[in-house]
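Subject: sequence -> structure tokens, single chain

Hey, anyone have a minute? Need the predicted structure for the following. Not urgent.
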Amino acid sequence: MSTAKGVPYSWLSGEGLSRIDDPAAVDAAFERGEEHLGTAVIGLAATCPPDVSSPRILRAMRVLDGPRREFAFTAAGTVARLHGELTPELYAALRAEGPRGVAANAIRDTLTFVPIRKLPPWFKWRWLRATVRDTLEGWWLRAEDVAGDAWRGVRGRRS
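Reply:
Had a minute. Here:
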């Protein structure tokens, strides 16, 4: 078991990697092809500033395969949640991946936690689209509730 600034972690079991704060240890793990890199990248996103974690997140987006690749996008969403901003490279990677698939939650986190004034143009359009869609969906659901209540009221009078 190794430690980074007093935090114990194990590459073999993945224990403690969600709190790792040593970019050099993560870089070395990339070179060794460690299994739990996704968890480590999320840990870096939670413990380091965006400019430190971003290159490792981008590398994980390129290197990790299949379901493990989702961890890299979770890390991008974590950066947005904790720091209220992303690096230009992370914005570009999320835009390139698109709003469906593995980037969907990271894009949603970005639109939720990054102030609109900090968003690049594509994300501002996504924010506008999501806001309009969510508003219309809310109106629709409230209208369904009112109609359902009215219908139950009418049916209740007949019995």
